[in-house]
# Entry
Amino acid sequence: MFRSRRSGLVRRLWRQRCMVPGPEDGLGALKPAAHALFKKLKDEELELLVQAVESRGARASGCIWVPRAEPRGAKLALPSQVLLCRLYRWPDLRHAYELKRLSCCQSFWGCGDGPVLCCNPYHLSRLAMPETPPPPYSKVSPFTPPWTEAWERSLSSCNTGSNQRDTSLVRPAAKDGHWCELAYWEHRTRVGRLYAVHGAAVDIFCELPQGSGFCLGQLSTAHRSVAVHRTRGKIGRGLRLSREPGGIWAYNRSEHPVFVHSPTLGPPGVRGQAVHKLLPGYSVKVFDYERVGAAAGGRALGDGPSDPHSVRISFAKGWGPCYSRQCITSCPCWLEILLDKPR
# Structure
């Protein structure tokens, strides 16, 4: 009875794998390593893994512990976390250093510093590496300021006119211990109140089973355009913000890209930082406390001056000189992250 139940869990896990193999893997190449790993897991850990991969990370799942290293003399194989991420998330993943552990994982906080390590593939994200070639909309050298005539025109068009204004909010003094406030916008209209964040991490989402955090699906307004309705349908599981040593990280949990503008995200000394595309499943450090001083006093990409302690994120739609949307206020759904200044 117990053996058939365990076999059923293993069959369910194998059916959930990515059907397109990685460039180094033929069909079924990872099967022996995967089944060897499944054998090491206890029944309750197999159930946790099934829950994680069948919900594609939508439901919270616990840590799945495996030995940190193979016994001495064992045949060299893929690390367990790389194997599971290649099976269920990114078939083209090559190395463990391409991954970033999420703050929801006990191993992130040092609980796995002993002989075991969590290998839950949805406790990991893929790191948006700076050496990754830029997408077509921002093909610029990392050493050349991307300040062009088109950029200047987009700034001037967004900053002039009697009805144009800075969308950054005047924040009240932090009296209740929160480290940031979130403002949700639809075009030029702020929807709902400011959402104060007290915990180390927060989820921002439209639809998430058993989710907790800033639920955009509960925010209503009198009039919404077709573009807003369409974009809200793409937010889904949204993103997770986490305050970690040295800065703020964003993890894209949705099935569509998000676009980020931050005073500390681009190369140091670059005037007018670009909008960065963050693909589903990827993480990026959207705010660096050590670099904020050098970025102070800069100009935002449209919409007036930039608060050096704020980050803007648009869901599914980008903006800038290479887009039809020159300003973030032209994006249907976007988020403003107002960070409290460190004391």
